[in-house]
Design goal:
globular, 8-stranded mixed sheet, 6-stranded parallel sheet
């Protein structure tokens, strides 16, 4: 693909995620990047018209209508509800379009496999929208990996009516599942989980324990019915503790010397204390805040996707990565269902 020719892109779906993709593509185009936003697609005429007016591009009710009117498209963001990912992705891939599919990749593994098979057949790029992979704090943390053995993840959000076509595991927790899977690099050995519906018909809050073949253990908590917003990941490795805040894009690192044998939970509590204003290191602890260059994860994700499209390279978050995260999320949902049955709960 000629480097001088701008990539022609479209966005399918104009919900919250779709509107953000439209904004970023337009910002990149206006900044002189080699990309041209050419269309927005949504079966909802009113939503499509509103997004069309804001982005300054034509709107269409279907992919077929779009391709017929604007001609060839190089790439597209798939931002429709998860239950429609397969149908939309397959139509785009069959038309020779590379796709960035919002997470999760699909509703089922069978649907995910159909997308990936077609991508191989048509030699198309499939990237999955696990945008926290592009969070500058995560990028910084990767540079300090040294056999992590314990993770603790909290992703809490206030209730909103969006994404209710999936449960909290596929909605929120899957971000952290993907990140931990990429950091651990070991097969899953065991999953234990509990979850409950609270304000929707699907599970709204869940707690999960995952053990890997490497011996690493990860605890995940996700809620979309919280009174506060929290997006944090902590992990321990030999003589070191790291605390990552996704929202603030902060990474706190504590090297442990004399305190190496202390209980990890006590260290976590101490780290939180040290992170507060006026906190001071204790004997045996060396506290440092890792320098991070801030950036918008979605913009970094889309730039990475466009690079993969232009250079025909494997995306940072490939379709296969998205399938692995989906597989674990679905296993967690089965564990939640099994726990509910044992406990006599109706979910």
């Amino acid at each position: 693909m000629a480097a001088s020719r701008p990539l022609r892109v479209a966005v399918v779906g104009t919900g919250i995620f779709g509107r953000n993709h439209l904004r970023v593509y337009k910002e990149l185009e206006q900044a002189g990047e080699p990309v041209q936003l050419v269309a927005v697609v949504d079966s909802n005429a009113a939503a499509a018209s509103e997004s069309s007016a804001k982005a300054g591009v034509p709107a269409f009710r279907s992919i077929a209508e779009c391709l017929s009117a604007v001609g060839s498209i190089d790439a597209a963001s798939v931002c429709v509800p998860t239950v429609h990912h397969r149908v939309v992705a397959e139509e785009l891939l069959a038309s020779g379009v590379d796709v960035l599919i919002e997470k999760p990749l699909a509703s089922t593994l069978e649907e995910a496999d159909r997308i990936l098979r077609l991508a191989v057949q048509r030699q198309r790029v499939v990237q999955v929208g696990h945008l926290e992979r592009f969070n500058p704090a995560v990028t910084a943390a990767r540079k300090h990996l040294n056999k992590p053995m314990f993770f603790e993840s909290h992703r809490l959000s206030v209730f909103t009516p969006r994404s209710l076509d999936v449960d909290v595991v596929l909605d929120l927790m899957i971000h952290d599942l993907d990140i931990v899977l990429s950091l651990v690099g070991s097969p899953v050995r065991e999953v234990r989980a509990v979850g409950l519906p609270v304000l929707s018909p699907k599970v709204d809050i869940a707690n999960v324990r995952v053990e890997f073949d490497s011996g690493c253990v990860a605890n995940f908590t996700a809620s979309r019915v919280s009174t506060e917003r929290v997006r944090k990941l902590r992990f321990f490795q030999p003589h070191q503790y790291l605390s990552l805040d996704f929202a603030r894009q902060d990474l706190l690192m504590i090297d442990v010397t004399a305190a190496a044998a202390m209980d990890p939970h006590r260290l976590a509590a101490m780290a939180e204390l040290l992170a507060q204003p006026g906190g001071h290191p204790s004997a045996g602890l060396s506290l440092s805040k890792v320098p991070i260059e801030p950036g918008e994860p979605l913009r970094l994700e889309i730039v990475s996707f466009l690079d993969a499209v232009r250079n025909r390279t494997r995306p940072v978050v490939s379709g296969e990565d998205g399938r692995v995260a989906l597989e674990l999320a679905l296993e967690i949902n089965r564990a939640i269902a099994a726990h509910a049955e044992r406990a006599g709960l109706v979910i």
